[in-house]
Amino acid sequence: MEKSSCSLKIRRMNNQKITKYIKNRNDSLSSQKIGNLNLVIKDDIDENINHKKVFYDVNELIPDSFLNLIDVVYIGQFDFLNEREVNAVYMDGALYITNVQDSEQDLLDDVVHEISHAVEEYYGNEVYSDGEIEQNFINKRLKLERILKYHGYNVEKYDFSNPKYDHDFDEFLYKEVGYERLNTLTIGLLLAPYSITSKREYFARGFEEYYLGDRLYLHKVSPYIYNSLLFLEENPELDYEIRY
Predict the structure, then answer these.
(1) Could you write out the DSSP letters of every residue in the chain?
(2) Nearest-5° angle of CA 152, CA 156, CA 159?
(3) Contact at 8 Å (CB) between 31 and 61?
(4) For 88-103, how does the pLDDT look when each residue is reduced to its tens digit (9 = 90+)?
(5) I need a surface site. Which of 102, 172, 182, 228 has the fewest CB within 10 A?
(6) Residue 18's pLDDT band (boundaries 50, 70, 90)?
(7) 40 falls in which pLDDT band (50, 70, 90)?
(8) What domains lie within the chain, and their CATH numbers?
């Protein structure tokens, strides 16, 4: 679509400006192209982590139609990552990934997770148009509400039917319930505890399972995400405006 192509063009011009800005502030910056991905290394990665292997794996695992949504991958230390206490962020067509990684698998997980947000943003109309994923997510949230209430947690002040991220709800799950406990209570209901914090994270965790985990298990636990990804994978010619 014309509007979509225009948005991508503007976004890529902005990312070129960001790359030049980072390079001007760091003479040691290096640029690499691995498969379909352009990497900009701002700060050194641990020598024990073979980042090139990780990104070659990403190229093997993820369809080209999805990788083409990523203009550039920045690796290094970024204040906004530290402020949010996260390892990676997808923003305006770029991936920002911390250079501090525990292992190659952790780096792979971070990259694939953030690519999922690019896919959701670009193909959001197709992913969510029939309402099935959102309704499935809300049904799981409501079931979780019953489970937590049964186990004595005070759930009255939280809206379990809200598909969007809510900081207070996230804090409740993380600090009061605890992800280890939550994982035990939701076996067979969720792929991972954090996926219940929002529809966006629910889709992202399903995306990870589809490309890095067990597709049969994803089909069992979250069939609508599985079907949506299968459709997108089999129809790479789809072109949607950025809506989500």
Answers:
(1) -HHHHHHHHHHHHHHHHHHHHHHHH-TT-EEEEETTEEEEE-SPPPTTS-HHHHHHHHHHHS-HHHHTT--EEEEE--HHHHHHT-SEEEETTEEEEES--S-HHHHHHHHHHHHHHHHHHHSHHHHHTTSHHHHHHHHHHHHHHHHHHHTT---TTS-TT--S--HHHHHIIIIII-HHHHHHHTBTTBSSGGGGG-HHHHHHHHHHHHHHS-HHHHHHH-HHHHHHHHHHHH-TT-------
(2) 125
(3) no
(4) 999 999 999 999 999 9
(5) 102
(6) low
(7) very high
(8) 2-122 (3.30.2410), 127-234 (no CATH)
pTM score: 0.86
Q: How far is CA 125 from the centre of its chain?
A: 17
Q: Distance (Å, rounded) from C-alpha 48 to C-alpha 235?
A: 38
